[in-house]
């Protein structure tokens, strides 16, 4: 079995929003902002290719479904669908994907399910053979968003998924057809029902952590985002996960970190967590 880190489109979001109540003088050293106070963010996916030839894709990034005005607003570049290009580089087409796992349905994690924007046309649903796994609680949130976050969801994606016959809702027990290779748990601090994927490896688990920990700077426990619905709850969830991964020699896969796709979780004598970069392709599955 093989693991691949796949780059998608880049986006730029306001640094203050991304770092919540952390002062600019602190976070500007981690994520240097542009003249509009925006910081660069990867929208990275993880591909698991099993010995049986099954291709499991964890998230699809922001993609290129936005019209030009919104691409400019969110700093999305380039204008074409980079994830599809990344798949081609490892010899795969969108039709080769068997399962897409979405941690949640915010546009920068699920927009890549849609085709590139074309004037006068509604984007179509991609990955035509793939089942799409979404947490049941998050699905309800996406269909009935709160005023605070409803703009983060994509109505046409929700309707196309619902009508596709390929949507698979994962209940709160986390049970799915991907077990025991992949197991699911849930976080609620960023958005209700965010699904966390744990992949079993010989050296310890690899966790696709999504927006619970967007990148290496957010491993610092007090750091949260302005986009988080329940920051205090998120800190508790993050702390529990990091403690667990230290004990199990676990790694985090970062979807938004522009420099580090994956890191081994460490803790020092003062209890401060950090990560050490790990090459995704070097990781080995449990036999």
List keywords for this structure.
alpha/beta, 6-stranded mixed β-sheet, single chain, 14 strands, Metallo-beta-lactamase, Chain A
Give your account of this protein's structure.
The chain is of the alpha/beta class. The protein has a single domain, classed as Metallo-beta-lactamase, Chain A, CATH 3.60.15.10. 21% of the residues lie in helices and 22% in strands. It contains eight helices and 14 strands. The strands form three sheets. The chain has a six-stranded mixed beta sheet. The longest helix has 17 residues, at 231-247. It is globular. The protein starts with a strand and ends in a 10-residue tail after the last strand. The mean pLDDT is 96.
Please identify the structural class as seen in this structure: alpha/beta
What does the main sheet amount to? 6 strands, mixed
Radius of gyration: 18 Å
Number of spatially distinct domains? 1
* End-to-end Cα distance: 10 Å
Give me the strand/helix succession: EEHHEEEHHEHEHHEEEEHEEE
Give a nutshell description of this structure.
This protein has 287 residues and is α/β, with parallel strands linked by helices.
SSE order and pairing:
Layout: E1 2-6, E2 11-14, H1 15-18, H2 24-27, E3 38-41, E4 45-49, E5 55-58, H3 68-73, H4 82-89, E6 99-101, H5 107-110, E7 131-135, H6 136-143, H7 155-164, E8 167-170, E9 182-187, E10 194-199, E11 206-208, H8 231-247, E12 251-253, E13 262-267, E14 273-277
Parallel strand pairs: 5-6, 6-7, 7-8, 11-12
Antiparallel strand pairs: 1-4, 2-3, 4-5, 9-10, 10-11, 12-13, 13-14
């Amino acid at each position: 079995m093989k693991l691949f880190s796949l780059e998608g489109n880049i986006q730029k979001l306001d640094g203050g929003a991304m770092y919540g109540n952390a002062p600019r003088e602190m976070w500007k050293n981690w994520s240097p902002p542009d003249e509009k106070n925006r910081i660069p963010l990867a929208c990275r996916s993880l591909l698991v290719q099993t010995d049986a030839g099954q291709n499991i894709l964890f998230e699809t990034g922001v993609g290129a479904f936005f019209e030009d005005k919104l691409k400019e607003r969110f700093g999305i570049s380039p204008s074409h669908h980079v994830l599809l290009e990344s798949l081609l580089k490892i010899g795969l087409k969108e039709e080769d994907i068997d399962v897409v796992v979405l941690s949640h349905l915010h546009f920068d994690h699920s927009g890549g399910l849609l085709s590139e924007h074309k004037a006068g046309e509604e984007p179509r649903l991609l990955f035509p053979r793939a089942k799409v796994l979404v947490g049941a609680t998050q699905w309800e949130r996406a269909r009935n968003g709160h005023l605070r976050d409803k703009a983060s969801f994509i109505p046409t994606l929700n309707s196309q998924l619902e009508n596709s016959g390929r949507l698979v809702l994962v209940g709160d027990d986390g049970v799915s057809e991907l077990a025991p290779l992949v197991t699911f748990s849930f976080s609620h601090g960023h958005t209700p029902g965010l699904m966390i994927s744990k992949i079993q490896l010989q050296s310890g688990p690899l966790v696709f952590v999504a927006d619970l920990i967007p990148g290496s700077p957010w491993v610092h426990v007090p750091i949260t985002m302005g986009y988080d619905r329940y920051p205090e709850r998120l800190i508790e969830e993050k702390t529990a996960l990091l403690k667990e991964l230290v004990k199990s020699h676990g790694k985090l896969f970062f979807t938004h970190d522009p420099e580090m796709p994956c890191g081994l979780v460490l803790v020092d004598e003062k209890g401060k967590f950090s990560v050490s970069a790990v090459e995704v392709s070097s990781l080995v599955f449990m036999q």
